[in-house]
Structure prediction request, 610 residues.
Amino acid sequence: MAEYIRFEHICKNFGEKKVLKDIDLGIEKGELVTLLGPSGCGKSTLLRILSGLEDATSGKVYLDGKDITNVAPQNRDIGMVFQHYSLFPNMNVRQNVAFGLKKKGIAKDEIREAVDRMIDIVGLSENADQYPSQLSGGQQQRAALARALVTKPKVLLLDEPLSAIDALLRHSLQVEIRRIQKELNITAVFVTHDQEEAMVMSDRINLMHDGKIEQSARPIDLYTNPQSKFAATFIGHYNVLATEKFVSIMTGQRPVGKDLSRSQTIAFRPEIIGISKSAPANVPADVYLLKGKVSMSLPHGNFLRYNISCGQTQIDVDTLFNRDKLYEDGAEVYLQIPAESCILF
Amino acid sequence: MKKRKGLSTVFIVIVLIWLLVPLLVSLIYSLFENWAGIVPKGFTLQAYASVLTDPQFGKALLDTVLICIVPILLTNVIVLLALFVVTAYFPRLEKYVQIICMVPYTVQGVILSVSILSLYVGGKGFFASRVVMLTGAYCIIILPYVYQGIRNSMRSVNMPMLLDAAQMLGCSRIEAFFKVVVPNIMSGIIVSSLLAVGIIFGDYVLIRNLAGSTVTNLQMYLYQVMKADSRKSSATFILIMLVMFLITTVVLVLKAKNDKGKKER
Prediction:
């Protein structure tokens, strides 16, 4: 499929600081793509360059085959939802949503119809005449979403729109935004620092680090196959250890299949680790065996995270919550780590 | 909690008495012909009739209102545009704009008027006009109040984000400022303008020095009346307060309308 949005060699400097370093990225039509990364990695800047609110120091931006690098934001036909509620305080929901359409000079009847339909899609029909200060955070962001979508933009940009909303509402809004994006089949670029949010919402995640795209992949591929130490650390709560240290805490025979001596770092996810109180009678040939003590257990609802001390090394192990199979703090345990699930860097 | 509420009520009552006593005494003084000890006698509205039928009062009132409107409008427009440019394009320059706008706080009326006269008097053209000089002087005097009011309102509405949001909906930056930001800071503009009205209404020094022969404001009229008739001057004072009260009421009604919908749930 042809690329709908294309960033070509985008660089951005703020004074001496290089915020974006030669970004090359393509986004297909109808995709919801996430720019994920820690604060200061350049994800919002890249989004603002696409919106036109920020100029790139060098490089080009293409939308639908046209070079929009020097096009003013108001002429790009892009909708945007901001991190902080950006509704106009002196207008009610209906007036806010109608603002962009009025600006386009559309007939009043058409505006009324489009606004009502969009307010209905975002589930704010009962709040249409309320002012922003009379709405909850979630309602305000839904109104902002309606306002951005009603003009039928080519691309929808979402700059951490859920970061100021409480957890419960955030989860329902994630699903709702995804539903609306699919329903309208709109191309969307979503910025977040929350990897779980990125996993839930995206067709593709672009993991950013230090002004560069660290890895671009489908959520499941990024989760199961991080390509760098940073990706492993940022995604999926991987245990990331120096191979030398890992070898020093291994018990029993070394499994065949993986040559640890050629890599510096080993990473494995907490949920692939098997845990037992007694030493397993037969350890499969492709499994690493470690021995340690439970130093802490952290309930996470449906799963438990054990923090296991193997000498000076801490390893996190996730197990599904089972009342009959709990490990006390201080208990000696054995950990089995399938070699094929380990990633070497 | 109750104790604190009681204390604040007492404090408010004391302040109200402090503010209202001079007004009340002036009102009583203007309404009675003579006194039996401390009891007023001989109720009459003659002082008010005399002021209200005096063409000089009407002219002074009209002059005061007119000389208020131009500097306030001009200063508001200048400050709005300056703050737009600074916030939207050169945020680092804001501190310098603030310093410039705050300087007139330290300038006394006499010094300002003498400086303006020494610079422009004797010249020819637009700036040599006494009314223009006075308008300029008032713009300078009210600048800190107007600037502070508008700046505080802008901060409360997160102007950069509103500009970005409006731009993404099809507005140019300047259009976004006037269509979205200005309506949202109208309440601050109204309040600072009201403050400016109070300052210009109360001015005697600037108008006396700069345009005494051309323009007579209410303060100058009051000063003239004080020399001739104390009862009439009390009535004038009460009428000035009444005009201010009316202006304040109209402005606050406008502000209340503007604030509609911004109240917290």
